[in-house]
Amino acid sequence: MGKTIMIVDDSASLRQVVGIALKGAGYEVLEGCDGKDALAKLDGRKVHLIISDVNMPNMDGISFVKALKQLPAYRFTPVIMLTTEAGDDKKREGQAAGAKAWVVKPFQPPQMLNAVSKLILP
Questions:
Q1: d(C-alpha 62, C-alpha 52), whole Å
Q2: I want to staple 8 with a disulfide (CB 3.0 to 4.6 A). Which of 26, 52, 67, 93 is the partner?
Q3: Domain residues for 13?
């Protein structure tokens, strides 16, 4: 049974690109189109890592991470923010919310997979 990673991004094409890279590296992939959708899909199943965008409709990435950390089953699930936001203020906000890493778009899949392999839960 492979490890499961959830991708949360309002861009279907980005979810596809990230999903292909992750599946190619042997991970199972779940998708959410925004924070609210992602939370609805986190039904207690084991998720080893989450990759989330910051700017999304309905619920942005920072709010999503804060909500995630309130859920006992996912309190320790590592989150990588994958975003066009390179600003230090946003990064600090993300880290304060509980994000473990920050990958700026456009990104190279090997760079993202490297961050994933370092942070993914055993």
A1: 9
A2: 52
A3: 4-119
CATH number of the CATH domain containing 13: 3.40.50.2300
Amino acid at 117: S
pLDDT-based confidence at residue 107 (cuts at 50, 70, 90): confident
Contact 81, 105 (CB under 8 A): no
Share of the chain above pLDDT 70, in %: 99
- Contact indicator for 98, 69 with CB cutoff of 8 Å: yes
Which phi and psi (to 5°) does residue 83 adopt?
A: -155, 160
**pTM for this prediction:** 0.95
Q: In 3D, which of 43, 36, 52 has the Cα closest to residue 94?
A: 52
pLDDT digits (tens, 9 = 90+) for 3-17: 999 999 999 999 999
Q: How far apart are CA 19 and CA 122, in angstroms?
A: 20
